[in-house]
Amino acid sequence: MLLSEPSTPVILDVDTGLDDAYALMFAARCPGIDLLGVTCVAGNVGVAQVVRNTLDVLDMSGAAEVPVASGATGPLVDDHRSADHYHGENGVGGVQLPRSPRQPVEEPATEFLYRLLSESSRPVTLIALAPLTNIALLLRAYPEAHKHIERIVWMGGARRYGNVTASAEFNAWSDPEAAHEVLHNGIPITLYPLEPFYTVTVSHERVARYTSAEDARIRTIGQMLAYSQTRNAGETRIPDPTASCLGDAGAVMSVAAPELTTVSRLAVDIELNGSLTRGRTVIDERTSQTDTQEAGATVNTQVITAVDYTAMEQLFVNTVIAGEETCQKSSS
């Protein structure tokens, strides 16, 4: 059902592989989210492929009016290291998406972000599903941008162990310097780490139905989910090992339906130098934070520690597959 309250103004920052694509599909079709624009950064694949995937997914999802900007081609310090071994060479599992005729806007992502933030009549929620390079560059170039940002929701880090290394999650590992700058900027941050990331899935039975659907859009989504299924094999953090992980989409759903999340306020920092731990998010879950506060650790971070993943699966299906307008407005 449609809600009478206004939708939440949102800008997405993505490195569109597979799970970013699911997140874009949800954001594009959820009436509780007012998607102002999307910025792209090198991550899962190179930024040119990220832009192409993002435009294609938005148009396929009925959101051809949403502008897209190209951003950083690599992290602040290191060279870009892709995850095409997981997402496939084209970032979406080799699935051929309907080609969008659009091109990105001429503005680079930093200027585009600042313009959208400045023009919004209400503070904007930035949902970052990628390395935080674009966001760090925005805050370097326009320190006053924080006045227009309600909060940053970042899919990044892990409470326990990583996915690209034993210590680090991919988005944090890809540009830890950018993550460090953003975490210490003072803007309220909601962290969506790997623990909830892996729990939000689409069942094997549903994926099988979608891959044989008559509707071309649903069939394409099914093909992508089927590829994700194969890449999830062996990941013990997924409750049902036969399901397809939605990953980043859960972070967007946490904005649309915050009542489906469990959140704790915790000190979060990121390791920059360790030979084995570079990119690790260090989350202080001790009862007392006195020591970390004295050391200058960031304590303005809300960490999503759990989600109602069954309800999130249904929310995704209702919104993206069935098209039912059941999304909730964020109460942030």
From TrEMBL:
GO terms for molecular function: hydrolase activity, acting on glycosyl bonds. The keyword rRNA-binding does not apply. Keywords: Glycosidase, Hydrolase. Its EC number is 3.2.-.-. InterPro entries: Inosine/uridine_hydrolase_dom, IUNH, Ribo_hydro-like. SUPFAM superfamilies: Nucleoside hydrolase (SSF53590). Pfam families: IU_nuc_hydro. The keyword Electron transport does not apply. Residues 10-312 form the Inosine/uridine-preferring nucleoside hydrolase domain. This is Pyrimidine-specific ribonucleoside hydrolase.
